[in-house]
Amino acid sequence: MHLLKLFFLPLLLCTLNSAWGHAVVTHNSLKLKPVPVNQASQVELSFNSKVELELSEVFLISAGDKMQPITAIPGAKPGQVLLELPALVPGEYAIKLKIFAADGHLSEDLLRFFVRNPSR
Questions:
Q1: Structure confidence by residue, pLDDT tens digits, 43-74
Q2: How many CB atoms lie within 10 A of CB 67?
Q3: Residue 21 — pLDDT band, cuts 50, 70, 90?
């Protein structure tokens, strides 16, 4: 049993270390604030670590899998990023992230969202 613990402890520590090295989205404003119809807007993202925006890529994906790059700017806090969205018509969209953590690890994520006409 003691040998088993000696084997799995380093394995567990390596796994935890690699998870800490990646920039993971911990908050996004899409959950709290819908994207307005036909108005440019911002999406706020928070990551669990500092990110290197100069090395990162962010894309807006729209109907027909059309990808267009969108601007990402640093927020006020470490790990906070603001995305500049163009005016969008109602429909289904996604934000594709290729983000480099400050330690050099690459993370990819896809955030899906809808733009809907306001209910009357």
A1: 999 999 999 999 999 999 999 999 999 999 99
A2: 13
A3: low
* DSSP E strands, 11-115: 25-28, 41-47, 51-62, 66-69, 71-74, 80-85, 91-101, 106-115
Separation CA 84–CA 73 (nearest Å) = 8
Per the structure, how many domains does the chain have? 1
Report the amino acid identity of residue 41: S
CATH at residue 20: 2.60.40.1220
* Domain range for 37: 2-115
Residue 120 included in any domain: no
- Any domain includes 90: yes
If you search the block for the tokens 């700017």, which residue do you land on? 73
pTM of this prediction?
0.79
